[in-house]
Amino acid sequence: MLKRLLSFILVSFFALACRESHVEEVKNFRIFVETDTPALKYSVQILVADYNRHVGFTALSVVDKKEDSTSTIHFQKDLADDGRKLGLGQWTALQKQTVAGQFNQTETMTIEYGMELIFDLDNFLEKAAYIQDPESEGYQHLFHLFCHEVGHGMQMDHTHTEGSVMFPSISIHGSDAVDFDDYFRSVRAFLDDPTSMVSAQQGHGTGHRHRQL
Ligand SMILES: [Zn+2]
């Protein structure tokens, strides 16, 4: 009787042990910049540094090898002529399953989030000429554009509030007042806890001399 009970306990324990699994989410965006143009690579590095400064910690990093990356940026000529877009951003998720241990097996499901961003080549190059001057309209346009597409890469949707970073159009001169504080609060919330995302505010706005994002 004791022996049967013991084996029952052992079997139950084994079955229970086998089922032990957990999910890990990785939001460490390691970006590979797909270009041979040094000015573009350099500009992305400056924008990434400014982005991290606003977040308050390293949210994005630039890597030299594609195999070390979770995310990509590339530049496309005439993207702006195709639907008048200056940039496109989307998020990606890669699932990996690892099993550790022989008897007490632990199953880990890792979800590694990444992003794929595309920028219009001519627009980016033109504004990159001002990359050393954060006060310039060119820089402000580029930073706004970069933040918007990275926002999509962090699963943010468009908002209808003019002045929001996630508003679907941008001034070609980058001179609009943009609410970066609200945006970076959402970024920090996403990186710490995706369920605490600030919901999009409703409103409406019109734009002229604006390009779609
Ligand atoms: Zn957009």
What features would you describe in this structure?
By secondary structure, the chain is an alpha/beta fold. The chain has a single domain, classed as Collagenase (Catalytic Domain). Helices cover 34% and strands 27% of the residues. The protein has five helices and eight strands; from the N terminus they run αββαββββααβαβ. Strand 5 and strand 6 (106-120) form a beta hairpin. It is elongated and about 80 Å long. It starts with a helix and ends with a strand. Bound molecules: zinc ion. The site of zinc ion has 5 residues, from helix 4.
List the helices and strands and how they pair.
Layout: H1 2-18, E1 21-26, E2 29-34, H2 38-55, E3 60-63, E4 71-76, E5 87-100, E6 106-120, H3 121-128, H4 137-153, E7 169-171, H5 180-192, E8 210-212
Parallel strand pairs: 1-6, 2-3, 2-4, 4-6
Antiparallel strand pairs: 5-6, 7-8
Helix pairs in contact: 3-4
The structure holds zinc ion.
Count of individual helical segments? 5
Major beta-sheet overview: 6 strands, mixed
Helix coverage percent of residues?
25-40%
Structural class: alpha/beta
Low-pLDDT runs: 194-209
Assess the beta-strand content as a share of residues: 25-35%
Number of domains: 1
Bound molecules: zinc ion
Separation of the first and last Cα atoms:
72 Å
Mean pLDDT: 85
CATH architecture: 3-Layer(aba) Sandwich
Give me the count of strands: 8
| Rg (C-alpha, Å) | 22 Å
CATH topology: Collagenase (Catalytic Domain)
CATH class: Alpha Beta
Shape: elongated
Encode the helix/strand succession as letters.
Answer: HEEHEEEEHHEHE
